[in-house]
């Protein structure tokens, strides 16, 4: 029996294997089992992706690099390349160069490569704030396109307090018997012209004067302050300095003005400083032999020994299983393996690929006469050695007068990393919380630095935990150290910092309308800085601060809403923190689309959305990757995220293994379709900026070029169907466009030694090798794209056919006998029941040989190779760098008997 099955849309994206039984799910009919190097459009069709154009190599390909977007306005956006201790800049597919064009424009930064992906950032106009808990907060400031500066954030007012403050008795009351009994005390502050900044109080001055007697006056004077427009004068009364006046001049006369103690001079402190912390660390002796290496823990696999030949008396053994116990305890292993006549000459642990040493074992054997020797047991004689990459238990076998060494079979052992650790402790004191980072090169400590300063140390020392290495010594310095924030954002005209190492749930907000003013008054004013700790059942560091309708704080275990209490705005005396859910976020910077917050979960690797729900009266969170769990695992998490708004709304997630995941996301239409981008290499970071009317995705891609690891900044082209020029369907690609046609294309040094594909004037040329930065085309062309090819592949879900018994034809074999594809501007497509039985879909018509193909739009039929399967799925593949759009398809499926 043949049945026609039609799929009209693909905007549910790639669904996981766990969803193949959910034919009742509304998204099943619009899903795919595989969507690789293609993306589902919100309208329903699925299209192959555009390629990535080569922009430039990073400064140092041996170290990690991260991209972040600097967005000043809709028409002024730039990609910042953050590497170890430097920043470079890219825009419109080109690198910002020095004025003479000799090298990329570059500025110095404070961050190590290992810390780049823990940096969080926010932006206000041409100032971007970047924070990391191990570094002082920084500002990336743009003064012009060729003038960028990295400046440490200062949280003190920029106005200096007035100097030269003096107070003198200007006049005295007649016949005042109390003229010498009262002392008047004053301080003065300076204000900016917009009144958003007020300096701290000046030095206090005093004068003996009885202002209570009529006729007595005091004159207070001071020096003018650069940048100030107004000055406020405060007089001491009842334990506080209260406001008595404001002037634009540099003096005032007090004739017994009553101070307003509800308005006092501001106070300030450095909120990120802690006393008794580790302010510095240095190496006294780097030591030797240290190895963040590996030790043998247990047998990983088992296998056949020998490939023996009885006639030649070579060793032969049966199937062996040797369960190895961590730590080398006595329980050891047992085996029933037997050998032909002879004895074991040696058994030991060796490293097939690395330089591991130190792991030895004792093995018990028993001679069974002519039946051979049996291994009865064994154990490690030490704690497993170190430095192993591929440890094996290897046998050497002696028989007769000739030694035979078993070289085919061996037992794989699992090598587990045991890192060197540095512990800071206070010898005889009560200090706590300090953590150190370090670098080991060739067994020697070459760098040590403070990750967290801790506090209250009096005699700090370092304890080294290791299974190898000796002699290292360190010197620690105590002082006012920095305890820096992990999160930053803006809300209600305040810049907000949150989540340091020592105060993981603390939130600091600047004074209203200021970037860096952390001043406050006694009593507190509504515009003062805010500092408070979130009270929660678990102590988890705040990872992100995000401004939605209300302020959202994401920790590693919960999502919190920070809002006003009994007022319209957040103030020091009106603030409420309420939990919204208990999921938790990872350190990956979240993205906002419409009014929804998208973030990577702290556990499980999934991506979630958080949005306001009126029925719940708060924010709720949901798993938007629940239908594609196979794309997210705890061992393969998301490490970077970016968001494209135009021409298609897509959330980009860089996975730890180098796969770039995309999510076509239109929440108001309930569209959330996942897909995968794979390339000849690995995606490591991604960022998006607007250039013209479209958003462009930039990525750091790690590739192997001429046998070496290289990291490139690449920019994805905006996809169109113009494969003869504007759009490229190749990766790491470059373009040569000239008035005259030529067969030679040069300037391809970044692809040296690679086999590449070219599209010249719309004609595909494959199998070209770049040599000396050049390739020669088979024919002359004027407009040529050259790069690395990739394969677009789609696979349909198992067929679900309505049936009276409710089985949806499950449990019966199926054969796809005919497929009708509705294509749009497409060429170079193959299809079949699986990758081993593919046939080309006819797309060329009247074009002559050597001419580019005309793109096909409309329906085309294919009779695939007959193959019976349980699923009735089929595969569509495009390996050529040409456009491909699948609008819908219909398949004729023959249903066989029960399996």
Structure characterization notes:
The chain has 899 residues and is mainly beta. Among the domains are: 2-49 and 808-846 and 854-898, Jelly Rolls (Sandwich); 166-254, no CATH class; 273-291 and 419-482, no CATH class; 294-417. Helices cover 0% and strands 51% of the residues. The protein is built from no helices and 66 strands. Strands 1, 4, 5, 60, 63, 64 and 66 form a seven-stranded antiparallel β-sheet that branches. Strands 2-3-59-65-61-62 form a six-stranded mixed β-sheet, with no helix packed on it. Strands 7, 8, 9, 10 and 11 form a five-stranded antiparallel β-sheet that branches. The model is unreliable at 299-345, 366-378 and 398-409 (pLDDT under 50).
Question: Secondary structure elements and their pairing?
Answer:
Elements: E1 2-7, E2 13-14, E3 31-36, E4 38-40, E5 46-48, E6 52-57, E7 66-73, E8 76-83, E9 86-91, E10 94-95, E11 106-108, E12 120-124, E13 127-132, E14 135-144, E15 147-152, E16 166-171, E17 183-191, E18 205-208, E19 217-221, E20 230-237, E21 240-247, E22 251-254, E23 273-288, E24 294-299, E25 343-351, E26 361-367, E27 373-380, E28 391-399, E29 402-405, E30 411-417, E31 421-426, E32 432-441, E33 444-455, E34 460-465, E35 470-482, E36 485-491, E37 494-500, E38 506-509, E39 530-533, E40 542-547, E41 551-555, E42 559-563, E43 576-581, E44 591-593, E45 596-600, E46 607-613, E47 618-623, E48 638-644, E49 650-655, E50 660-666, E51 671-677, E52 682-691, E53 694-705, E54 708-716, E55 731-745, E56 755-760, E57 763-769, E58 775-788, E59 792-796, E60 812-826, E61 829-832, E62 839-840, E63 856-862, E64 868-869, E65 875-878, E66 885-898
Parallel strand pairs: 2-3
Antiparallel strand pairs: 1-66, 3-59, 4-5, 5-66, 6-54, 7-8, 8-9, 9-10, 9-11, 12-13, 13-14, 14-15, 16-19, 17-18, 17-20, 19-22, 20-21, 23-35, 24-30, 25-28, 26-27, 28-29, 28-30, 31-34, 32-33, 36-37, 37-38, 38-39, 40-41, 41-42, 42-43, 44-45, 45-46, 46-47, 48-49, 49-50, 50-51, 52-53, 53-54, 55-58, ...
